[in-house]
Amino acid sequence: MKQITQQAWAKRPLIISGPCSAETEEQVLATAQQLANTGKVDVLRAGIWKPRTRPGSFEGIGTKGLPWLQQAKKLTGLPVAVEVATAKQVEDALHFDVDILWIGARTTVNPFSVQEVADALRGADVPVLIKNPINPDLELWLGAVERVAKSNIKQIGLIHRGFSSYGNTEYRNAPMWHLAIEMKRRNPELMVINDPSHICGRRDILMDVMQKAIDLDYDGLMIESHIDPDNAWSDAKQQVTPEKLAEMLNTLAWRKEDVDSESYHAALEKLRQQINHLDDELLQILGQRMKVAEQIGTYKKNNNITILQTNRWNEILDRAFLKGDKLGLSKEFITRYFDAVHMESINHQNKIMNS
Ligand code: PEP
Ligand code: MN
């Protein structure tokens, strides 16, 4: 791997920025120069081939834009990163010296496409970042990592860009943090970068998501930037100027994963033990709850009643919302928690009723 790429790849937090799409040579060079001037950006990104959800919008400048990136690299010293989705795109990107490749969310969903990209990567000494698939499916994301790894690519990283979900939420792609955390847990050796731009889809809430990612100890951020965001040819609403980007990076509270202080460690250890005790208690109580559910199952079986009784379930939830509110627990958490407990109870009762 080239020296500058190696250095950038090892940098923490790794900050990748640049336009959603390369549009013109002037735009690419000006953005690159302004980003480099901030002194806060490690890698320049730009979309050359854009997988658009519907035809008719700007589908990327194509291979013609690759020399612009070479030029930008020469001008600023920043390594460049590009999204690839086909074998030809991998070939072209490598031919024009692109330093880091990434697989986009619309490609990660398709094993044929991922395999095609992985086959084209065989023998290349280039780092590859893999975005989560657009749908919340960890297996697909893992599958893409495995396909790329089988092509003997040694530097692999993950990009968490959120998951499309049905209905209105404040996000363009719901972050579903728990999925990214689980992916990180299963692949502790891979770097995980957060992409707040595609999660938010809008500028005004970028900071919240960036801060959350930093608090969750992500290895870096990929944020879209443009010299004239409102007039960008793609993703205009979510891009920020390089100047604004620098300001946001300055405002973030950067946390340390660890500090050298014995009293800090002792205090933390005590609190962690408390958490362990509380978790043990919760598990004990949940086990008891399931035993009671089984008794109810036996009763229902003997009297031939259905397991699911909607009225009773609504009553349980309403009680929990009221209590939870007083304890500072969100309605969303209560709903998810009780859904999980309820499903487990139903499974226990099911076993009894069908035994
Ligand atoms: C992008 O990075 O511009 C892009 C197309 O992102 P995603 O694959 O996350 O939609
Ligand atoms: Mn984009």
TrEMBL record:
It comes from the Bacteria. Pfam families: CM_2, DAHP_synth_1. The keyword Coiled coil applies. Keywords: Coiled coil, Transferase. It is an enzyme of class 5 (isomerase). Gene3D superfamilies: Aldolase class I (3.20.20.70), Chorismate mutase (1.20.59.10). Its EC number is 5.4.99.5. InterPro entries: Aldolase_TIM, Chorismate_II_sf, Class-I_DAHP_synthase, CM_dom_sf, CM_II_prokaryot, DAHP1/KDSA. PROSITE patterns: CHORISMATE_MUT_2. GO terms for biological process: chorismate metabolic process. One of its GO terms (molecular function) is chorismate mutase activity. Residues 262-353 form the Chorismate mutase domain. Residues 261-288 form a coiled coil. PANTHER family: PHOSPHO-2-DEHYDRO-3-DEOXYHEPTONATE ALDOLASE, PROTEIN AROA(G). This is chorismate mutase. The lineage of its organism: Bacteria, Pseudomonadati, Bacteroidota, Chitinophagia, Chitinophagales.
